[in-house]
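Long-time lurker, first post. I've been practising inverse folding by hand and with some scripts of my own, and I keep getting stuck on stretches where the structure tokens seem ambiguous. Below is the full token string for one chain I'm working on. Before anyone asks, I'm not after the true native sequence, just a reasonable design that respects the backbone. If someone could post their per-position residues I'd love to compare against what I wrote down in my notebook.
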């Protein structure tokens, strides 16, 4: 929670108190500070923030000024990542798990023309210069992708499977391995980045709700 002090004097020992959580901070004049209060929950999905107290006993602790804050806010709770998930399920296919088209391949080198080579692969300028036909050698990226697929995980407890898939999302993102996600009613193609990670985690958090 962000606290702002708009006065020309500092505020000391501002405390925030919630169930099982406490934090304290000072706020300089015309400045702001952050109080961090944890809220425990045993379920995933959207969770409303609980009321908490702000109080101050400065300077001697003899008197207490306090108020109750009832926040109009909620947060999205992701499934708890499995501590020991199985290895990432690799697709074994390049380019984010999808077959590449020829025109997207990368130039790798030249070799002498072989019967059956497509005409579009012939290096005409090089062939004319050497008076012999040469073909371009193209190479597709070997980057693998991860296929995080609910249907390939077999039977099992729903929350356990969501926990494993959450751990997979975080591990694939950390290792910079593109990953797709598929669950009943939702699917995302292979990609990387914070936006893709958050979209996957949101699907997992709200599954079945």
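-- Answer (accepted) --
I ran through it position by position. Result:
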């Amino acid at each position: 929670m962000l606290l702002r002090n708009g006065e020309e004097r500092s505020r000391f020992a501002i405390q925030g108190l919630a169930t099982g959580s406490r934090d304290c901070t000072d706020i300089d004049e015309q400045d702001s500070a952050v109080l961090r209060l944890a809220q425990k929950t045993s379920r995933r999905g959207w969770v409303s923030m609980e009321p908490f107290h702000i109080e101050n006993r400065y300077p001697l602790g003899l008197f207490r000024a306090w108020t109750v804050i009832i926040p109009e806010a909620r947060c999205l709770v992701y499934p708890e990542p499995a501590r020991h998930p199985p290895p990432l399920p690799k697709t074994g296919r390049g380019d984010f798990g999808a077959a590449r088209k020829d025109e997207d391949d990368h130039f790798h080198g030249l070799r002498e023309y072989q019967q059956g080579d497509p005409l579009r692969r012939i290096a005409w300028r090089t062939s004319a210069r050497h008076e012999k036909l040469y073909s371009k050698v193209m190479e597709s990226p070997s980057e693998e992708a991860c296929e995080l697929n609910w249907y390939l995980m077999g039977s099992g407890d729903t929350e356990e499977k969501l926990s494993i898939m959450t751990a997979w999302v975080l591990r694939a993102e950390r290792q910079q391995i593109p990953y797709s996600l598929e669950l009943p009613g939702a699917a995302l193609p292979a990609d990387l980045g914070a936006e893709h990670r958050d979209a996957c985690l949101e699907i997992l958090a709200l599954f079945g709700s």
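A couple of notes from the structure itself: The chain has three domains: 2-77, 102-139, 144-206. Confidence is low (pLDDT under 50) at residues 93-104. Happy to go over any region you disagree with.
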